[in-house]
Backbone:
């Protein structure tokens, strides 16, 4: 277990959060989203930190003066800052609160839409994006760039920097992935379901009920990746 989450926790979190980040990032004209996914892993401990779990803030976004003056929701929490290299200082600060995870992701892109972070749209790869974040003052940690880059490599996140095609969202009431795919006019054979599983999850597909349910759940959310 690392920082309160396991490798499996991280993979499950990525399956959930990466499509949300990719769609929002691409819609706003950003070329690199892999580093943003890594930020959600690092800042919110794969959705397990109190800030991420309770307030849908996966990126450690603080509530500045303008946010507070606008009477937007915020919460006061303890946090650690590295003002001097190698020395962590515990402080209390206000952080932004969001209604759900999609709003939290949108909030991240709102936060970096200012001129201070304009260079992020020009980043050509995950490392440059991470270096720009540090240069722009997003985080005080002296290891922030390496932490993000390590997560990108460890979890193979660069695949999310490429356009991803999704199945149409299934809004029917069926509880069978075969029937759901049939209703959408898509192929539902075992061999094709295996390809679908491999495109969305790690591990060997054997047609188990739990695996089919996992595929169906993503299809219902509209985030099932096409092989």
Residues:
């Amino acid at each position: 277990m690392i920082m309160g989450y396991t490798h499996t926790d991280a993979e499950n979190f990525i399956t959930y959060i990466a499509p949300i980040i990719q769609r929002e990032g691409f819609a706003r004209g950003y070329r690199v989203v892999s580093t943003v996914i890594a930020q959600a892993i690092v800042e919110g401990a794969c959705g397990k930190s109190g800030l991420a779990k309770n307030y849908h803030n996966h990126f450690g976004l603080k509530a500045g003066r303008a946010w507070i003056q606008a009477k937007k929701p915020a919460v006061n929490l303890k946090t650690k800052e590295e003002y001097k290299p190698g020395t962590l200082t515990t402080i209390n600060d206000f952080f932004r609160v969001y209604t759900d995870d999609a709003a939290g992701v949108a909030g991240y892109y709102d936060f970096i839409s200012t001129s201070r972070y304009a260079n992020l749209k020009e980043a050509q790869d995950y490392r440059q994006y991470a270096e720009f974040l540090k240069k722009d003052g997003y985080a005080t940690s002296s290891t922030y760039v390496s932490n993000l880059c390590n997560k990108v490599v460890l979890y193979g996140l660069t695949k999310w920097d490429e356009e991803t095609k999704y199945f149409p969202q299934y809004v029917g009431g069926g509880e069978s992935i075969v029937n759901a795919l049939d209703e959408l006019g898509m192929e539902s054979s075992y061999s094709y379901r295996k390809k679908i599983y491999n495109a969305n999850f790690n591990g060997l597909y054997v047609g188990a009920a739990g695996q089919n349910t996992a595929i169906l759940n993503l299809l219902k959310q509209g985030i099932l990746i096409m092989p």
In short: The chain has two domains: 7-161, 177-221.
